[in-house]
Design goal:
The protein is α/β, with parallel strands linked by helices and 139 residues long. It has 4 helices and 5 strands; from the N terminus they run βαββαβαβα. It has one domain: 3-Layer(aba) Sandwich (Rossmann fold). InterPro entries: Flavoprotein-like_sf (IPR029039), RNR_NrdI (IPR004465).
Length: 139
């Protein structure tokens, strides 16, 4: 059984999110480019719109592909205080997708490393689960 590939889906308004997505070392694709059935597992990088809203393109993507989305990180401006990257909290609650990181604008090198590590751990844990399922099926 082949591991499903990881793709970084992004929704970028100013370019910060796109830049961050490209630093993660996986294929990247704007959320508006996904169509039809999806075989990939997706990590989503998006932004907060206005006063804490989830961008419409991100919502449309999640309404269709939340089941393929393994995690999310959200960009914002920390000067917004309690509204900082609030879209991430909303996505976590509404779609039950792990909020991995809130990014200040385009994020920092430590954010890139933390997200890479999280994806690698997810892949490792997912592979272990698949192997256990295969062993159980053989019994």
């Amino acid at each position: 059984m082949m591991e499903k590939p990881i793709v970084i889906a992004y929704d970028s308004r100013t370019g910060n999110v796109e830049w961050f997505a490209k630093q993660l070392g996986y294929p990247v694709k704007p959320v508006t480019d996904f169509e039809g059935e999806m075989d990939e597992q997706v990590f989503l990088v998006t932004h907060t719109f206005g006063r804490g809203s989830v961008p419409k393109n991100t919502q449309a993507f999640l309404d269709r592909y939340a089941g393929n989305t393994i995690g999310v990180c959200v960009s914002g401006d920390n000067r917004w205080g309690s509204l900082f990257a609030l879209a991430g909290d909303k996505i976590r609650l509404e779609y039950e997708i792990p909020l991995v990181r809130k990014l200040d604008l385009r994020g920092y090198p430590s954010d890139i490393e933390a997200v890479k590590k999280w994806i690698q751990e997810w892949m490792k844990n997912n592979e272990t689960k698949r192997m256990e399922e295969m062993l159980c099926q053989q019994k």
